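Hey L., structure's done. Input below.
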Amino acid sequence: MSSYHFLNLSQHQGIWTIRLNRPEVYNALNAGLIHEIRYVAERAKISDEVRVLVITGEGKAFCSGADLKSGTSDSDLGAVLRATYNPMILALRNLDKPVIGAINGPAAGAGCSLALACDYLVAKDSAYFAELFVQIGLTLDAGSTAFLMQSLGYHKAFELASTAKKFSAQEAKEMGLVADVVAEEQWESRLQEIVMDFARRPTLAIALMKRELQKAYQPDLATVLEMEAHAQREAGYSKDFQEGVKSFLEKRPPKFMGK
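Output:
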């Protein structure tokens, strides 16, 4: 397999496994990692050898979200989404093979979006999820608007988005987001069992199911991603976002003004 800078990719019996490999920042997403995830998904789509794509994280976390410490050269967050996150999410959802999210630790912010972009989620019992955008004065992005509404409906989606509350793997299972919660000592064996089971399933039928289930939800994901980009552009220029990032870096509570 080709080498990557920000992820590890392995192949075994038709199973490609992405391991986000920035454990020193809890696998936070920078432009390079986002590009590599998208590239692997696009490669998997055109490969007849791939039966299943698995996404997990190295170290203690699945993905802590956007790497705020790395900053961005573009103050227009809508443009950033259109150039990076949105193509990655669409590549995963348009992949005509099952994508298994192996949630080995915290999945927060855009990391939560990445988890929810997967088709089937398996989580360690110690993992948790959190839509942290509001804590830095931003709206949902990377598809969470669609994913929460598809799975939970308006009121629960609003609750999780507006409060940024953490919810455990078990709570996520009870909500219907996670299919299986696994203890640490059984993690590797149970995950292997689930992934191998999917690798033996009829890939074409699953691809058709995946496509039709997404079509059954309106509006379509591309429309929602564009809507998120438009809203995030506005939020990204706000004083609250400036304060949110500053307070995060200074490790203090933010003082939002609603502007």
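The chain has ten helices and nine strands. The beta strands are 7-12, 15-20, 52-57, 99-103, 107-108, 120-124, 128-130, 167-168, 180-182.

-- N.
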